[in-house]
Amino acid sequence: MPDKKDVLIIGGGPIGLACGLACLENRLSFTVIEKGVLVNSIYNYPRNMRFFSTSDKLEIGGIPFISAQPKPNRDEALAYYGRIGEKLKSNLALYESVQSIQGADQDFRVITDKKVHFGRKVILATGFYDLPKMLEVPGELSSKVRHYFSEGHPYAFKNTIVVGASNSAVDAALEIYRKGGNVTMVVRGDSIGERVKYWVKPDIENRIAEGSINAYFNSQITAINPDHVTIKTPEGEKILENDFVLALTGYRPNLSFLKENGIAIQEEEFQKPKYNPETMESNRPGLYLAGVICGGLQTHLWFIENSRVHATQIIEDIRTKR
Q1: Which of 103, 105, 132, 195 has CB atoms 3.0–4.6 Å from 286's, for a disulfide?
Q2: Can you tell me the mean pLDDT for 58-75?
Q3: Any idea what the Cα angle at residue 231 is, between residues 226 and 233, rounded to 5°?
Q4: What is the DSSP string of 55-106?
């Protein structure tokens, strides 16, 4: 007989780990399946990134998160969640990519690229950092275009266009500028995003005002070429010499995976998946949703501090139904 777990958790980010801790506390057998490293999305954040939330808001499972500053950075978060991983390590299946979720409530089979996992319940906590929103312009697939930013050093003394005006775009623009890069921001809207971290927003606005960072608002890239890009601005078309394009326009959850595995979409505009907000169970019995994926394309609705409660809701429902 195959080893059947009480719960299979797909996604090894903070919310997936919170679900694992809740299983551990309630003596439910479980496996956390993650396609990459532990807390893979945080690992891929920019190296100098600092969270908007304070450390207590990032805690899971009642385990204290102590940081040197009120708002922790990426490395502190990796260390914190790594300690939690130590508690769960015998239940982790890292570097396994889920292909499909087969079977039904009480008898699920989660097929990965390495093996088949058997479980009575399934929790999907897959986040949204895997699929960048594409510009959909000619040349976007060239090697000079990147959708993720790690650090500013590779762009020093080069002409880099940063597309977007969110936290990731602003952080990249400022770091590249301070590493000696020539930065131009291309922003679809008429200003820097309102959700940009409050201690960073004045910095980027001042750098733009003084001309240290160039910015084109109400503008968009229309074509990317090896040595230049074409942008459409309110003043007409412009051609800018260019070495790199950082298209930091946001990311989206893998909604196709949800649809392929029987989860209904109840709101077409924002592609919000169907689930019971009290239990987090989806329309597919025994399959639960947790974390940012619950918001569909509205990825700003859910984050660690307001979705860590999903773990408690889900495990309580599973215990009740047992």
Answers
A1: 105
A2: 92
A3: 165
A4: GGGG--TT-----SSSS-BHHHHHHHHHHHHHHHGGGEEES--EEEEEEETT
Q: How far apart are CA 299 and CA 168, in angstroms?
A: 14
Q: What are the CA-CA distances from residue 239 to residues 197, 228, 298 (Å)?
A: 31, 7, 33
Q: Report the alpha-carbon distance of residue 223 to residue 6 in Å, rounded.
A: 51
> Residue 31: which of 98, 131, 104, 102 has the closest Cα?
98
**Interatomic CA distance for residues 73 and 77, integer angstroms:** 6
Mean pLDDT, range 294-315, rounded to an integer: 91
Domains and CATH numbers, the chain: 4-131+251-321 (3.50.50.60), 134-247 (3.50.50.60)
**294 SS3 class:** helix
For residue 278, pLDDT over 70 is answered with yes
- Provide the pLDDT for residue 1: 62
Q: Please, are residues 237 and 246 in contact by the beta-carbon 8 Å criterion?
A: no
Half-sphere exposure of 50 (CA within 13 A, CB side): 14
DSSP letter at 263? Answer: P
Angstrom distance (rounded) from CA 292 to CA 313: 15
> Which amino acid is it at 12?
G
Q: How far apart are CA 55 and CA 78, in angstroms?
A: 12
What is the distance between the alpha carbons of residues 170 and 150, in angstroms, rounded to a whole number? 13
Structure-token pair, residue 132: 């960048």
Task: Report the alpha-carbon distance of residue 136 to residue 221 in Å, rounded.
Answer: 10
Q: Which residues are within 8 A (CB) of 23 and not within 5 positions of it... i.e. 6 or more apart? A: 6, 7, 9, 29, 30, 315
Instruction: Determine what percent of the chain is predicted with pLDDT higher than 70.
Output: 100
What pLDDT is stored for residue 298 in this prediction? 86
